[in-house]
């Protein structure tokens, strides 16, 4: 087990290095930040000074060398815009996104598993058809549209909820609801399909022959077997949110890592881009590891 | 009229499918008493399992529909009870075990938990259930019961898994045990042990045992009475020995006649000259595991050599190693004087058409998206020098006739055929390359007895007409007895005994061969009774 984790960490570290190289050079292709930060009539002298200050005068390869050297000392550089350590800025945004992702995915998981399992118990029944209908709509509706319609209805017309920002619990409701819909539809479909297979299996027949009532048949005998493919999709969807729920965070002015990243790219705030990418990469690595561990926990036939 | 423990009266069950309504069983009537064993005998599709599924409330409705009849348990009609009332009976009063214990045990829970659950759902306190589970595991002969409690189904062998199923089914001392093909997936020696265990437990508890099987041997071994089913109807029923000795219905007669292992064994022929295939100290190692430990034998032209052995004996490994489907670890395979294992891929390619293979499961070995014509003629695409394309159509038609199918079937797809027909297609495909040797790996094991007999007859006819040789790999001894010239008995990667078929079956020398024969079941209840006694007195069944 320890060896497995070690091997996985090693492989991820190698991809991370590749990613850093790629992003470092690609982000430099977007242009010179000087033009963005200085007034349009700034003198050449001011420009040179700005470039000197942020190390933009050196050849690219020297800038890269310096960046890597700093990285090795856990120095992720400074945000040009906010004039404070990039990592500090990123972790602040990440904390918001992580909270959003955890709450949303917990709700999605519980709801999709319970409803999907019940739908699978009577395939083609009324409950199954209703849930299939709504989950398909949910899985296919674009989130920016839902977000805007949500704002129009609940914030503008009914005035029940704030349009954007953070602060009170009411601020969380719209972003979470919008982020909830698509993963919910998708995971519900996976749960349903996987449960149908599990419930038609031979061991469920045995359970029926033992006289086990329907509820434990679904949630004890069926569900644990049906969870493996579901976990993969849950992980995938959670990664999507962690990576930055860019659209939703932007629309709701939510200060998460997705909005931060978009702003950083628009403002050529290179250090912040790189730090944000590193943080989400590590988060995704940890999540994949958790998924692998969940696999082994659920299925005794899987051992690492 | 005395009340029976369980009585099925005029039961009819339909299944409504997209292709129309199928009557699975029609007006089936039988009964079971305490302490007796009733066998329901039938081939696939006969509806033999349907009444058991009805008793256990396992039929999905829809698509199933019970159109008539009643199922009386101690005089009460199960079909009139609520689901909840039936759940109270299931497991507690009427329990069931199934054919394939691996898929019927939940893979993600420990066996201890699963056996305990049988009791806890019927309101036995957890600590009592646990104590009883230990007792049961000990009773059915699971080694080291304390440790076994915390293990998962995949950590046991096939025979042990069936013992676990039995332990679970008997946890609450049910009045009736339904066993649906309980030993079909097991090796002969293990089958004998499991049947013996069932009998013992029946004597202890006095339960009624309902056994569903396709195997006349199992009926002869254990049943008091038998019900013979064909196409959803009971064609004959009565005392098991009586039905075997004086079958009244033509179907029963056919079934008994088709049972292998009754005819004369082949005469011993002296075959001189160069062997077609000579296997010399063939070895196959997978890591530290030695699947083949230096096996040697040869096949003469026109000869049928059978390899028999239980699972894990290395018999299929041998077939794969000879064809270099898995590269062997050592030894020689001499084909017409040359070592196959030293050939370049190109030379091997030319030889491969001489040695063809027919596999166990024709459903899996035929590509479902190719027509029969495409399946058979594909061989000529790979080996274009055999036949000019203009003649393909005629040759496919010829081959189909040769294997007992009709030429117009060439346009159809595999799923449009029955299991036996599919195996004929697989044989036609093998014949397309005009091979000298056909390796049959359990080629008839998945087929019903009557179909099995037909396929064996086909193979034998082809041998006579075309001078083919066979390497016939099988676990089923009676089939081998009818078909083979020589028999090789394998155990744990080694050849234990080799000899002419008459010698192996009538005068086996090695204890393992003797045990194997003693454990195999004969359809004749009298022969079987003698065998049982011999087995008991000599203790031949290996533990």
Automatic annotation (TrEMBL), chain A:
The chain crosses the membrane at residues 96-121, 133-157, 169-191, 270-291. It comes from the Bacteria. The keyword Transmembrane helix applies. Residues 94-291 form the ABC transmembrane type-1 domain. It is a multi-pass membrane protein. GO terms for cellular component: plasma membrane. GO terms for biological process: transmembrane transport. The keyword Ribosomal protein does not apply. Its main location: membrane. It is found in: Cell membrane. Pfam families: BPD_transp_1. Keywords: Cell membrane, Membrane, Transmembrane, Transmembrane helix, Transport. Belongs to the binding-protein-dependent transport system permease family. This is ABC transporter permease subunit. It comes from Paracoccus aestuariivivens.
Automatic annotation (TrEMBL), chain B:
Keywords: ATP-binding, Nucleotide-binding, Transport. It comes from the Bacteria. It is found in: Cell inner membrane. One of its GO terms (cellular component) is plasma membrane. Pfam families: ABC_tran (PF00005), oligo_HPY (PF08352). Residues 8-256, 277-517 form the ABC transporter domain. Its main location: membrane. SUPFAM superfamilies: P-loop containing nucleoside triphosphate hydrolases. This is Dipeptide ABC transporter ATP-binding protein.
